[in-house]
Amino acid sequence: MASDAGLPRRQPASARPAGEVEARDRRGGLIGFAQESWAELQKVEWPSQNQVVQGTVVVLVACIIVGVYLYANDQLWKEVVQKVLIK
What we know:
Number of helices: 2
Strand content: under 5%
Distance between the termini: 84 Å
Largest sheet: none
Oligomer: single chain
């Protein structure tokens, strides 16, 4: 069995050198950008109203929990700092 370690590997005919960009048939300018953007937006799977409401509730509850936690820590450390630094 022959070893081909050290020999460059053959690339398929469709392979391009690194950094080379595939040329596309694009329309330029603002109109082309708008058309491509609209085409991408058509592919988006938008959430239902129920999913949006559930996500919003999760975020609000998380914000309230973190806010209460930070407030409690602030009150605790305020007392500690006042007793240690202000005698």
